[in-house]
Please model this.
Amino acid sequence: MKIIGGLVGLVVTLGLGMFIYSTYLKQATPVGGVVATQSISTTRVEMDLSTIAGAERSYYAQNGSYGTMDQLVSGGELSAAISGRDGYSYSMDASSSGFTVTAKWAPATAEQQALHAPTIIVDQTYQVHPVQ
Model:
């Protein structure tokens, strides 16, 4: 009888623990309003923008002006044009005195459309940051 009582207690304890955990998961809000998978995507986008900014720095050192995406690729600073990632599309404005690369949220799937993601930019200051 003690074994059965212990087994019932274990099952009740496990059931209660699972209930509490599932309730927690349902009520948990994402940190900063961004779900974990979107945070990962945003990090990868920020890395892309940093890569483009680094290519711009190199291009500027060689040419005395900032280049377009095509110029960065043809000059060898980038191995290929980077047009977007994970629901973001990239656009670039470059001049002799500065550049801005903008990553704008352009969701392609219904799952992506349900998420809100910030617009992210990098410019000649080489600082990658979201825009409100």
